[in-house]
Structures are given as C-alpha cells and as structure tokens.
Design a protein that fits this description.
575 residues, alpha/beta, Ribosomal Protein L25, Chain P, 7-stranded mixed sheet, 29 strands, 36% helix, elongated
Length: 575
C-alpha cells in the first residue's frame, strides 16, 4: 500500500504536535492518532508504521527553536483543534452532580496567611467556570480566623493574583466579620449537649484521639460547659487555656469526627478585628456555618478535604442548617516543586530563594514574575477538569502551553555567551547595514545596525568551524574563515554563492550590551533543594535591548524564551 503525500503531511503535523506537548514525539502515539484520523489505513499497519517512524525521527532531531518554527506552520490548525476540543469537553468536564442552572452559588475561600499558588488557581478557575456554566454566582471568602498568621498583605496579594488571573467575583466577605454568628452557633451546640469546653493540653487531646478515648471534660454537665464557655469569651482563660470541642464519636473510623476542636483562644492582635476577639473558630465550624448562611449551594474543594466532608455535614445537621453540595477535585501537583508555606519560609530564611515571587516557584507571584500567562495556567487546569484521579505533572507541560501562547509576539534576538571575536574584512559598502526581522512570520518590525566588521560568536560555534570553511552569519552574508588564533578569528566576506551550510548566531561588537540569563530548573531534586535550580549565564545581547521594557518577552535564537526581569541589571529569566 502506498502512503500518500497528504497522509505523510498529516503524520508530520501530528508528530510536531506530540513533540511540542511532551518534548518528544512517540511513534505509537502518532500512529494511533493517524489511524483515528484515517481508519481505512488499519488494513496495512506495517506500511503506515514504516511511514511514521522516519517522520517521527526527523521531528525528534529538531532543536527546540526549529521545532517551534515548524509548529508555526500549523498554528491555525492547532488553534482550531483546541477550540473544537474545548467546545466538546468543557461541559462534561464541569458537570457537577445536583447543580442547578440559575440556582448556583459557590465561593473561593483562601486563608490570608500566605501567597496563592497554582493549586489555588486550579480551584479558583474551576469554580469560576462552573459559576458561568450554571449561570450562577461566585464569592470571594477570606477564611481569616488565625490572628497569628493572617495578614492584610496576604489579602492584598491574593486579590492582586486573582485579578491577574482574570477571575472576578460577585461578592466578598470575611470569616472574622461573622464571629458573633459563630458564637451563637457554639452556644446552641453546647446547650444541646453537642459541644463541651476542654482544658486538656494539646498533647493530651492528641493522645486521646489516637487512642479513641474521651477525656473527663466530655462528661461535664451542660450548665458547666455554658459557664466555661462564658469564661472563654470573657477572657478568663490564658491563651490556649481551653478549647471548645464537638461532642462526637471518639471511636469513629473517620478520625476527624473524634471530638474536633471548634474554638480556641488566641490573644494575638488580629489584622482586621484588632483586639476585639480572643476566641477564634476553626475551619471545621466557620466554613460550614458561613457557607450555609451565605447561600452557597455548591462547594468545590481539593480532594484532600474529603475526610472532613462528614464532619462538615455533621455540624450543619446538629445546628439544623441548610447543607450545600460538596464536589471534590484532585490537587494539582507540580513535580519538583513545593507549595508548603513552612518549607518556603525555610528556603527564604536560608536565602536559597528570592522570596515568594521567586520565578522558580509555583506561587502565583512567582509564575507571574517568570512570565507565565494566566491563559496558560487556565488551559492546564482545563486538561484536568473535575477529575478526582491524582496526577502529577511537571513545569514542562505548563511551559509548553505558555510558549505556544507567546510565540507569536516574542521578538527574536541573538544572545552570545563565552564570546569569541571574529573580524571580517572586505564587506561591501551596501552590506554594512544589517536589517533583520524581529519575528520570522509576524509583523513585529525590524532591528537595524551599522556594522563595524567585528562580530561576537559563541565559543562552541567558533570551535566547530575550521580555516577555509565558508559559513553564514545568520540572515546576514557568507564569510570565509582565514585563520583562528587565541585573539580571535580572521575572515573575509564571501561574495555570491548559496548560503553557507553552517549558520552562526552573531552580535556586532559595537552594538552589544552585557546581559545575564537565569535558566530555571526544578526547585527540588528528590525532596532536597536543588542547588542548580537557577543557573546564571553571562554574555552579550544585541543593542536592540535598549528598546525593551521590563516584563517584555524575547526569544534568544538557539537559546530559548526569556522575560526581561530587571532592565538596569539586564537580567532575563527563562520561560
């Protein structure tokens, strides 16, 4: 069976798509996609396989820049495929059991005790998309009941991150504004015999839960519990001197039901409420109560909270309050990175990272600084949908999506590390001005230089050429190598002829600027900090950099995409 040129072209397109998404095209994956597109070819798998293998090999032999250039030929096809896929999959992926169109209300509940990360963004996007799909509303709810850790700076940073992500809200409220309501709920639980005041130490409470054994306070009379509760509210206990616990089941298989803490005493000044309160609720009471009273119909949260679902509903049942629906989704785990506030604070304290906006991190601030677009994050989230299946991805998947989005607007420039000088004589007068496109396909303009005749090329490329070779200064003209020495390379203009087989990236020596590239890798190696998670490369960039602004994205040919992080220090961060 003869494989037509049309089918070979389709094989190549699919191989490019596969390599772009995963770094390398897999013959089996490409073969299956071709068979899905042309089922009539199943009759001669051998012939098709023989056609697929060399095409896949040729695509895998391309460098990243060459692959992305090749992908540009199919950009319209890829965009159309993506649009069809989203149209086909968005509704099923975001179908919520029991949700009602037009009667849907959800909330995004960050605790303002740290910076948002990509896991928060996943939930926020899913909630936002679901609210739109069901013609409902979405609230921003700050779970700010820990005066020791909650800060206004985190509230501001979370809002800034959500605005950058393009997520908007219909309302905004704070748990700390609802303490009087929560106190009344506590009073009802106590009066009904469903809560008691406990003055055991934290260690004693922990041991009791592990052993499934209640303490003596569990049997206290209701009146005594009411008196002790009043003492808690009246400030008669020292910090952590007493807690209010749910009177539940100390033998429950689900350990979250073993008399969890509902309120504790914290006398630290609160960023929003000042010193007005010293008895603070825990997540296990403020979340269900506030969800119920604020009219939330559907709660979407990470699968890690599933064990607390039973407790969530137990509290609302005991209070006789309306119960929202809960929908669990898998966490978004990024291989080689961390989101733990404790561990991040340790790295910051040890000066191993720059801060919460370090571009190696998957915090929203870090991703924004690195140049990751909100749309790239959203598209990654859409791939997971509402699945509860745990799946670990890596930054490569997010970066590939981001590069696809920025490719059309990123200006192309040369960067030279470890420069070797090459002096070229005999350049015709009409060739002493270089005018080069800033993008191979899109109309982004030109950069133009008057040439001095002395160029910078990289040491590896200098080492690859020999005396007598005819090579091309990329997009400029051919030169013949005359001699190589410790002080540099001598060459002369080579007139006429076809372009040299070797194309050298170059910078005119008098039109260069010093620059520093920071290439980002995984933050962790195993479970330990990766000392090579950020590698600095010093070199030279074209003088066109003078026209760039902080935050601009460029693609250094044969190097990769970078964002200008600091123009004064000429620092670029890899994307």
């Amino acid at each position: 069976m003869e494989i037509s040129e049309e089918i070979k072209s389709e094989i190549r397109r699919m191989a490019v798509r596969n390599a772009l998404d995963y770094g390398k095209a897999e013959p089996g994956v490409v073969l299956n996609r071709v068979l899905s597109r042309f089922p009539e070819l199943r009759g001669d798998i051998n012939a098709l396989s023989k056609a697929v293998l060399p095409i896949v090999d040729s695509i895998n032999s391309l460098g990243r820049q060459e692959l992305e250039t090749e992908a540009g030929r199919y950009s319209a096809d890829f965009a159309a495929e993506k649009a069809r896929k989203l149209e086909r999959t968005a509704k099923p992926n975001f179908a919520l059991d029991g949700a009602v169109n037009g009667a849907f209300a959800t909330r995004f509940p960050p605790a303002p005790n740290g910076y948002m990360h990509i896991g928060h963004a996943k939930v926020a996007f899913i909630e936002s998309i679901s609210a739109q799909a069901y013609s409902g509303t979405m609230a921003l709810y700050f779970d700010d009941t820990n005066p020791e850790k909650d800060r206004q700076e985190f509230v501001d940073e979370i809002k800034k991150g959500l605005e950058w992500l393009g997520i908007s809200f219909d309302s905004e409220y704070y748990a700390s504004d609802n303490l009087q309501l929560l106190y009344r709920c506590a009073g009802k639980l106590i009066s009904d015999g469903n809560a008691y005041v406990c003055s055991c130490t934290g260690e004693e409470v922990k041991k009791g839960r592990i052993a499934g054994k209640g303490c003596d306070h569990k049997a206290q009379e209701t009146q005594r519990n009411m008196e002790l509760w009043d003492d808690m509210l009246g400030g008669k206990f020292e910090e952590n001197g007493a807690i209010l616990r749910l009177n539940s089941d100390m033998n429950a298989d689900n350990t979250t039901l073993r008399d969890p803490t509902l309120f504790r005493i914290k006398k630290t000044t609160h960023y929003r409420q000042g010193d007005k309160y010293s008895v603070w609720p825990t997540y296990d009471i403020n979340t269900p109560v506030i969800d119920s009273t604020k009219g939330i119909t559907d709660v979407i949260r990470s699968k890690e909270f599933e064990l607390r679902d039973e407790l969530y509903f137990r509290v609302l049942n005991l209070l006789g309050m309306r119960k929202p629906r809960i929908h669990s989704v898998a966490r978004l785990e990024i291989k080689g990175n961390i989101t733990s506030k404790r561990r991040l604070n340790e790295l910051i304290a040890r000066k191993l990272i720059w801060g919460y906006d370090d571009p190696r991190l998957v915090t929203i601030a870090g991703l924004r600084r690195r140049g990751i677009l909100p749309e790239a994050i959203k598209n990654l989230v859409l791939k997971f949908g509402l699945s509860k299946a745990e799946r670990e991805t890596d930054m490569g998947e997010l970066l590939a999506e981001n590069r696809r989005l920025i490719d059309g607007t990123a200006k192309r420039l040369f960067f030279i590390a470890n420069p070797v000088r090459i002096s070229v004589t005999g350049i015709p007068t009409d060739k002493l001005t270089a005018r080069m496109r800033l993008h191979p396909k899109n109309e982004l303009g030109f950069r133009e230089y008057s040439l001095s005749g002395t160029f910078l090329i990289s040491a590896p490329e200098a080492g690859s050429i020999s005396e007598g070779d005819i090579v091309q200064l990329k997009t400029l003209f051919n030169i013949t190598i005359d001699s190589k020495g410790e002080s540099g390379i001598e060459a002369h203009y080579a007139s006429g002829g076809s372009p040299g087989p070797v194309k050298l990236a170059w910078i005119d020596a008098e039109n260069s600027r010093q620059a520093h590239l920071y290439t980002i890798g995984d933050l962790l190696e195993g479970e330990e900090f990766n000392a090579e998670s950020m590698i600095q490369t010093d070199g030279f960039i074209e003088a066109y950099v003078d026209y760039l602004n902080r935050g601009d994205v460029v693609q250094f040919e044969k190097v990769g995409f970078f964002k200008l992080d600091d123009k004064t220090g000429m620092r670029f961060i890899s994307m």
